């Protein structure tokens, strides 16, 4: 869709005598006070001629550009709002904050919740990975991280603030008064914007070839192919803070303007010569001609630069390639710092995947630059440079640097897998999906793989935008429907989803056990009442069980589920009830109370983990059952025994301190303003009013579960297991309250069982184990002595045959695998030797074959398998299990294989 001409014909333009013209290059309409202009002043229709303009030369840093922007709109009635993290954790469909409007989608933009202020202004750090491969090549047009200055107005049907004319007027005032740009240089290019499920007409504000802002008028919701008018009309503007700084400084590239002295510091740290500023300025001026989607335009651009400067193309290529790679490292290290500073944990999934992708792309670029430097040192320089404004970088510096160091170690391991990757690809054509699969499964960068394969005479085609393609595949999460996780049959969901919400008595009194209610819907085993104390499964907590009492009968409730706000009781058997009929219900209190303890304990442990390990800890999953609870947290390293012990101590300290546990409801906008987005640790509720749970002076988090009213009621917590279940995810399992006693009892049983096996008492088991360890160590020493004795007389204990020009050595049957390996290693140290060991395993013969380096074992293994064996081997070792045959028959098969001469 695109707006019609009337959408853009503003009173402002007519009153200020702007004319609507069509760009002679791109044919896009634009408005300008300059009646002679025939160009939209945007790339690729124009070069970056702002670099040669004297107008607007104010030399603003990024900090100054941000302050000037915010202060201007504050003076014009907008309240300054603090930015959100670069990780969009208030959104379940998006991993990264890609624009300032993302802060207000979907609940504010849809009218469900009020904005934090109206109108408002914000400078929001954003991360976009879509164009990651273009960073540096276009000299600042593309960045992975940037600040979007946005002034926003939310116009309600009953409260209208301002719309298109005022928005354009604000832009004119800011650019002419604050940036000292003559009005006749401003151009408002007609455009259309879509994002986050919304759409509307927009103007791109261009000056001297550079787009400085986009003014969006959000007025539609996109539903499939339909554009449905929104109840709200939203002013959504995006001013490029870094571009404002570049425009005022007119430095050779945007990177000079953004990073100031840090740019030269990076060149020095990397040990690379700096690039001629005049060459960079010419390259930047002509950079609008680069279309990264058409790689040939990069070379054409460099040829034009060479011609303009009077340099040879080879020199220009070398200089601009080096510059682009340093710019990439500069840009990426800032983005890495911001991601990690806001809590990203590198991993193989979700937001962690995007963080790892950028870290590995940076390491790959450093390798292409042929420099040996710790990435953490470069990231630390970004922390120092930006820490004054982004204080989370300084606060979380230790974690940021530790995580980067760990990722660099892992990357070295990845490069060690290159040889095996080449072997797997060398005999077939390599396609895009092969490269993505190798990157996803093993982390191998395709360009480095390509270089290694090229050195071996194998050529592969690598897409120029490989990392952008991969990033796009992983930048968003699938959106789940409200009832996706229910265990109810689809036909039951359809019949109950539109019923009136069930009154939740378990929130009125979480200790309530019995109630009376009326039947709303009776569907055999599925019962809906107008009210209930039964908690439905959700938030990792199992649904309640208990009993329904009706017509003198007691019917078991085996589970409780929820569809939207309708609670469904699953009965043990079918019953027939009439609508409006009254019933009594009672929950299984012991079961519920144990889950309340475990659920509240989860909040206690999560807060303890964040305090102990760092702000990067985030809930990645949880489950609360009567028997135990588990909490999955994001963390980059395995937990030490001391950390586990400390977590447990912190949790029990809070329990012993008898802290009140208070649930309360609050508007989500107010909740975010007061407590931040960490309230969404357990998920993002789909409501304007959300339920928070506060543990006094410890934790505040959104949660719909049932909890004890005081931490003392948890009774105690014991962590029973800690596992690293996947890259970047640690699973904690624990028990609370009376379940600790059951856990202790099971441990006692295990200890007593071990004591019986060790023929001692449970009280003496420690000393008995110590004695066994001593005896075992002596036995190991004795075994080592016997092995040495055997190996010294090895030639006397083996059968040797000459088969052609090969020495066939047959070991006696050994029951010591370590001795067998050492014997094979010794006997095959020379050339022309094959060693065979034949052992007995469950009535079958296991044949191990070792060869010297000049003989390949494959043919012998093949002959054994032809005779009914199962196994395999390559190189100098093979192992085959023979289903039938004798020792002599096996040796005969080996001899025949050798005689054929194909070994």
Can you give a write-up of this model?
This protein is of the alpha+beta class and 903 residues long. Helix content is 38%, strand content 23%. The strands form 6 sheets. A 9-stranded mixed sheet has the order 1-2-6-7-8-9-5-4-3. A hairpin with a 6-residue loop joins strand 1 (19-22) and strand 2. The mean pLDDT is 92.
Taken as a percent bin, the fraction of beta residues is: 15-25%
Shape: globular
Task: Tally the structural domains.
Answer: 6
Structural class: alpha+beta
Helix content class: 25-40%
What is the rounded Rg? 35 Å
Query: Strands of the largest sheet, in order across it?
Result: 1-2-6-7-8-9-5-4-3
Number of strands: 30
Cα-to-Cα separation, first versus last residue: 70 Å
CATH class of the largest domain: Alpha Beta
Overall pLDDT score: 92
The CATH architecture designation of the largest domain is 2-Layer Sandwich
Uncertain segments are none
- In CATH, what is the homologous superfamily of the largest domain? Bira Bifunctional Protein, Domain 2
Major beta sheet, specifics?
Answer: 9 strands, mixed
Number of helices: 27
Which topology of the largest domain does CATH recognise? BirA Bifunctional Protein, domain 2
Quick structural overview:
The chain is of the alpha+beta class. The model has no long low-confidence stretch (mean pLDDT 92).
Structure keywords:
alpha+beta, 27 helices, 903 residues, BirA Bifunctional Protein, domain 2, nine-stranded mixed sheet
């Amino acid at each position: 869709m695109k707006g019609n001409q009337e959408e853009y014909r503003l009173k402002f333009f007519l009153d200020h005598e702007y004319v609507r013209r069509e760009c002679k290059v791109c044919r896009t309409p634009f408005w300008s006070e300059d009646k002679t202009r025939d160009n939209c002043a945007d790339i690729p229709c124009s070069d970056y001629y702002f670099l040669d303009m004297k107008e607007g030369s104010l030399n603003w840093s990024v900090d100054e550009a941000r302050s000037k922007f915010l202060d201007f709109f504050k003076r014009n009635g907008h309240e300054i709002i603090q930015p959100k993290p670069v990780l969009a954790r208030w959104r379940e469909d998006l991993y990264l904050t890609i624009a300032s409007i993302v802060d207000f989608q979907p609940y504010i933009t849809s009218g469900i919740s009020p904005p934090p202020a109206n109108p408002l202004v914000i400078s929001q750090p954003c991360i976009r990975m879509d164009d990651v491969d273009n960073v540096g090549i276009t000299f600042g047009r593309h960045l992975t991280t940037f600040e979007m200055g946005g002034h926003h107005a939310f116009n309600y049907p009953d409260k209208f603030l301002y719309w298109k004319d005022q928005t354009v007027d604000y832009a004119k005032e800011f650019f002419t008064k604050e940036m000292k740009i003559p009005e006749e240089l401003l151009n408002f290019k007609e455009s259309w914007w879509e994002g986050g499920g919304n759409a509307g007409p927009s103007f791109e504000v261009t000056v001297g070839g550079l787009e400085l802002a986009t003014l969006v008028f959000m007025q539609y919701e996109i539903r499939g192919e339909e554009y449905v008018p929104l109840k709200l009309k939203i002013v959504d503007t995006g001013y490029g803070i870094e571009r404002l700084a570049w425009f005022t400084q007119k430095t050779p590239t945007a990177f000079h303007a953004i990073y100031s002295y840090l740019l030269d510091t990076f060149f020095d740290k990397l040990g690379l010569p700096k690039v001629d500023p005049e060459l960079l300025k010419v390259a930047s001026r002509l950079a609008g001609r680069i279309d990264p989607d058409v790689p040939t335009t990069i070379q054409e651009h460099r040829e034009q630069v060479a011609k303009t400067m009077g340099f040879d193309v080879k020199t220009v290529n070398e200089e601009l390639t080096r510059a682009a790679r340093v710019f990439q490292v500069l840009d990426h290290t800032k983005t890495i710092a911001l991601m990690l500073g806001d809590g990203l944990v590198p991993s193989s999934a979700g937001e962690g995947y995007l963080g790892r992708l950028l870290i590995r792309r940076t390491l790959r670029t450093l390798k292409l630059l042929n420099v040996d430097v710790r990435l953490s040192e470069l990231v630390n320089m970004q922390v120092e440079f930006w820490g004054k404004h982004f204080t989370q970088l300084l606060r979380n510096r230790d974690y940021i640097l530790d995580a980067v160091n760990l990722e660099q170690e892992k990357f070295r391991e990845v490069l060690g897998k290159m040889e095996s990757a080449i072997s797997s690809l060398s005999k077939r054509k390599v396609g895009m999906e092969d490269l993505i699969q190798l990157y996803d499964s093993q982390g191998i960068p395709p360009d480095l793989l390509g270089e290694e394969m090229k050195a071996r005479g194998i050529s592969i085609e690598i897409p120029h935008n490989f990392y952008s393609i991969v990033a796009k595949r992983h930048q968003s999460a699938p959106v789940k429907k409200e009832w996706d996780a229910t265990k109810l049959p689809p036909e039951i969901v359809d019949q109950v989803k539109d019923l009136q919400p069930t009154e939740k008595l378990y929130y009125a009194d979480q200790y309530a056990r019995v109630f009376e209610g009326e039947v709303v819907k009776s569907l055999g085993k599925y019962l809906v009442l107008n009210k209930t104390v039964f908690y439905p499964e959700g938030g990792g907590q199992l649904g309640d069980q208990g009993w329904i009492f009706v017509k003198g009968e007691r019917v078991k409730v085996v589970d409780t589920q929820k569809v939207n706000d309708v609670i469904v009781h699953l009965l043990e058997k079918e019953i027939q009830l009439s609508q409006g009929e009254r019933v009594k219900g009672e929950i299984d209190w012991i079961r519920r109370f144990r889950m309340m303890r475990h659920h509240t304990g989860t909040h206690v442990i999560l807060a303890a983990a964040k305090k102990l390990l760092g702000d990067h800890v985030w809930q990645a999953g949880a489950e609360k059952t009567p028997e135990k609870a588990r909490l999955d947290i994001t963390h980059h390293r395995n937990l030490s025994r001391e950390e586990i012990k400390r977590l447990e101590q912190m949790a029990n300290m809070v329990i012993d301190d008898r802290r009140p546990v208070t649930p309360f409801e609050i508007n989500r906008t107010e909740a975010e303003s007061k407590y931040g987005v960490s309230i969404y640790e357990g998920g993002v509720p789909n409501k304007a009013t959300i339920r928070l749970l506060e543990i006094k002076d410890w934790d505040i988090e959104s949660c719909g579960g049932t909890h004890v009213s005081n931490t003392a009621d948890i009774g105690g917590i014991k962590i029973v297991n800690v596992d690293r279940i996947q890259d970047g995810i640690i699973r904690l399992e624990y028990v609370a309250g009376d379940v600790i006693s059951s856990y202790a009892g099971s441990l006692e049983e295990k200890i007593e069982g071990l004591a019986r096996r060790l023929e001692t008492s449970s009280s003496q088991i420690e000393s008995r184990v110590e004695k066994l360890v001593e005896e075992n160590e002596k036995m190991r020493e004795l075994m080592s002595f016997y092995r040495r004795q055997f190996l010294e007389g090895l030639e006397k204990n083996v059968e040797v045959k000459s088969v052609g020009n090969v020495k066939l050595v047959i070991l006696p049957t050994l029951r010591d695998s370590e001795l067998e390996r050492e014997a094979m290693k010794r006997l095959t140290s020379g050339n022309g030797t094959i060693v065979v060991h034949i052992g007995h395993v469950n009535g079958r013969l296991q044949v191990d074959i070792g060869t010297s380096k000049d003989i390949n074992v494959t043919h012998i293994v093949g002959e054994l398998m032809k005779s009914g064996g199962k196994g395999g081997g390559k190189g100098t070792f093979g192992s085959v299990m023979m289903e039938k045959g004798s020792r002599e028959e096996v040796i005969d098969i080996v001899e025949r294989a050798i005689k054929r001469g194909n070994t």
